[in-house]
Design brief:
The chain is of the alpha+beta class. It is built from 8 helices and 8 strands. Strand 1 and strand 2 form a beta hairpin.
Length: 208
């Protein structure tokens, strides 16, 4: 297990199979709330809930693997939940996703933010919105609006209530996985989603 400290945030990269139990018997499906973004198959057999930050490199790697999983398995219900804990650029990216969703374009903006090297600024996001064919003036208004701020605050409060102090954290079926994993491990967990598989209980290291 390799840990990276980013400011006050700890991010984990899982280099071998590390599966942590949800502890209280929490399942991915039980975490889904009305109004959450759902990608893949809304009625899929396997639910993946992904707590991520658009500025987090392990989160971006994990997103690529989940997107591949969705392409290869029609039974995946994917619920991405942006937890912008890595700074102002992350908060701006999270607000951009809300503004994009208000035009029915969440997936397009999500894909853009998760693959581009530049961190979000208002100028970058304006250019992204134009390239993606959004109503740009509306997007910029929504980006700065009260609704986007409320949604982002609610997601941060949700993560705090779950005591999520680092990203990514992925729930698959009855398992909670802190950090990024290989596609092979992701595929294995998806096909064992009905089981609670515990090979090791992991968490952030002692900051001292």
């Amino acid at each position: 297990m390799t840990w990276f400290r980013v400011g006050a945030v700890l991010m984990a990269v899982v280099t071998t199979m590390r599966v942590a139990a949800a502890g209280s018997g929490v399942s991915a499906a039980s975490l889904v709330r009305p109004g959450d973004v759902v990608l893949g198959n809304p009625r899929g057999r396997v639910t993946i809930v992904d707590f991520y930050d658009t500025s987090c490199m392990p989160c971006r790697a994990m997103n690529r693997r989940i997107e591949r999983m969705i392409r290869e398995d029609a039974q995946i219900r994917y619920v991405p939940i942006d937890v912008p804990i890595l700074g102002p650029q992350s908060v701006l990216g999270a607000k951009a996703l809300v503004a994009a969703r208000m035009q029915g374009q969440f997936h397009a903006m999500h894909a853009e933010l998760m693959r581009q090297r530049r961190l979000p600024t208002r100028a970058v996001l304006r250019a992204d919105a134009a390239r993606l064919g959004f109503d740009v003036p509306r997007f910029m208004r929504d980006l700065a609006g009260a609704h986007a701020a409320r949604v982002v605050d609610a997601d941060l409060q949700r993560a705090a209530a779950m005591r999520l102090r680092y990203v990514p954290v992925v729930y698959i079926g009855r398992n909670r996985i802190p950090g990024a994993m290989s596609f092979r491990d992701l595929d294995w967990l998806v096909h064992h989603a009905d089981e609670q598989v515990v090979t090791e209980i992991v968490g952030p290291p002692d900051p001292s």
